[in-house]
Amino acid sequence: MKTLYLIPLLFLTACSTAPKLTLRPLPQPAPPAMENSAVRYPEAVRAYHVGRYTDPNDDLILHEQHVVYRVEENTRWNFHPGPVDGSVVALPSAHDSAFSPVPVNDAILAEVNSQRIATAQIMAQARLLSVALARVQITLLDTKTNLQATAAMRATVSEMKQRLDALEANQGQSLVLPASPATNEPPDLLNP
């Protein structure tokens, strides 16, 4: 029963809450009007001179020389952050790292110099290697020529040897004629 006494106390505390605070934004002063190019980029228009030409769709139409204007780049919004105080801030120009000088200190200079020396040594060794390669190629050509000459000489020698063997065989047959049995003299080769 004691808990029943507490319920009306809860209702009383609900009525005693603090009133809600409402926040009302204060009106801000309007930012100063910016230059139109700071808000939106203008379009880029280029003029092109066109000489005489025939219409690609109809050969019977000839266009005389004239100027053609082409929109190269449409307008677009400038999304770069605006200035804090409302004044127009000129953005720094784009920095091209290809044209900026390299940072120089002793370690970098020492490395560059060692690379130059190594490059010079490699170039000298490459020259020596190319000279040696040229000599090897000349020697190889001489060896090929000598090999061909040797092969030709061997062919000639073997041909001569075959001819000599053939001649010796023919001469041996003519020298080994049977002697006449009655006279036991060699036959007369001049008078048969």
Q: Structural class given helices, strands, pairing?
A: alpha+beta
Helix-strand sequence: HHEEEEEEH
Radius of gyration: 56 Å
Tally of strands: 6
Can you offer a commentary on this structure?
With 192 residues, this protein is an alpha+beta fold. It has a domain at 41-78. It is 44% helix and 12% strand. It has three helices and six strands. Strands 1-6 form a two-stranded antiparallel ribbon. The protein starts with 5 loop residues before the first helix and ends in a 17-residue tail after the last helix.
Summarize the model shown.
By secondary structure, this protein is α+β, with helices and mostly antiparallel strands.
Strand-helix topology:
Layout: H1 6-15, H2 36-39, E1 40-41, E2 44-50, E3 53-54, E4 62-63, E5 66-73, E6 76-77, H3 106-175
Antiparallel strand pairs: 1-6, 2-5, 3-4
Question: Which labels suit this protein?
Answer:
12% strand, two-stranded antiparallel sheet, alpha+beta, 192 residues, 6 strands
